[in-house]
Amino acid sequence: MHAYLDFETQIAELEGKIEELRQLAEQDPSMEIGDEVSRLETKVTNQLKNTYAKLTPWQKTQVARHPNRPHLTDYVARLMEDFTPLAGDRVFGEDKALVCGLGRFRGQSVALIGHEKGSDTQSRVEHNFGMARPEGYRKAVRIMAMADHFNLPIVTLIDTAGAYPGVGAEERGQAEAIARSTASCLSVGVPIVSVIIGEGGSGGAIAIATANRVFMLEYSIYSVISPEGCASILWRDAKRSKEAASAMKLTAQDLLQAKVIDGIIPEPIGGAHRKPDETLIATGDVIEEVLREMDGWTREEIIEDRRSKFLNIGRPGLT
After folding, report:
1. Whole-angstrom distance, CA of residue 24 vs CA of residue 20
2. 256 Cβ contact partners less than 8 Å away, ≥ 6 residues apart
């Protein structure tokens, strides 16, 4: 059962008709519905192609936030073997918005760090909707240091509206924790590859996305603040979030053009939530390619590559 977005009304109607026909055929096996279902499925495919070919930045934001979009746990289940979660920052406690651990990715041992939003009410509350507290980022720093010590590549998967802005988080040093995590990304001597799989929001994203290579899924977003937050600050009106989304250049296509990211991972027609496995495999292929490319690099080359990448962002004539 799909959760349809507000611009998918016609698609919902067509798929509703297909479901009605199939239910009727179950009640009356003598019914011949093959041709009609095939015709409607073709219309659905064409409608999806036409709709998704001209999505606005705000509509892409909605797709990036789709509740059925693959989550970190889906990537772990599909791409990792022998994954062992590691908990706690050794200072305050455990933060479940950031999942960290060690495992094997297509035969290679790696450290994995990523946001988990949760897929139902209970898990969303448990994972704080993917908004990490300071202990989450301090845990990430701990895992990065471990990966650096044991010479393990680091894979980070980003899907957060931003770091948690609660009073407790601020009291425990949210800004310092994010800064230290970002600094750790820059200083480790092992390859880091990051993928924005949904939302890449603010410092909560960059804290684990300061990588040698940064990729975005086709309909993901990456920005310094949410469109709603931007609209509230600039115009004191969150209802102008559509306008803000267009002005912020937060889509994968905008950021590739600005050379903020290194590539875009195509999604199935209609978004990653329609064919999750296809998206998971495509993401794994890109990660594997980057790790193979950087295999054999020295620590100095890895660090210099990563630092140069971020120092050169926005400099005319430099990549």
Report:
1. 6
2. 216, 263, 264
Three-state DSSP state, 224 = coil
pLDDT at residue 318, rounded to an integer: 52
What pLDDT, in 10s, does the model give residues 223-245?
A: 999 899 899 999 998 889 999 99
Residue 281, SS3 per DSSP: helix
User: Which residue blocks in the chain are alpha helix, DSSP H?
Assistant: 9-27, 34-52, 57-64, 72-79, 121-126, 134-149, 167-171, 174-187, 202-209, 227-235, 241-248, 252-257, 276-294, 299-311
- 289 pLDDT more than 60: yes
Residue 104 three-state SS: strand
Which domains, from first to last, does the chain contain?
Answer: 9-54 (no CATH), 61-311 (3.90.226.10)
pLDDT digits (tens, 9 = 90+) for 136-171: 999 999 999 999 999 999 999 999 998 999 999 999
User: How open is the CA angle 48-74-286, to the nearest 5 degrees?
Assistant: 75
Q: Mind listing the pLDDT tens digit for each residue in 254-277?
A: 999 999 999 999 999 899 999 999
Name the nearest CA neighbour of 164 among 193, 135, 144: 135
Q: How far is CA 233 from CA 19, 130, 147, 237, 244, in A?
A: 44, 23, 39, 8, 10
Q: How far apart, in whole angstroms, are the C-alpha atoms of residue 228 and residue 241? A: 5
Question: What is the distance between the alpha carbons of residues 147 and 95, in angstroms, rounded to a whole number?
Answer: 19
Q: What is the spatial distance between Cα 87 and Cα 110, in angstroms, rounded to a whole number? A: 16
Question: Any idea which residue has 């971020």 for tokens?
Answer: 310
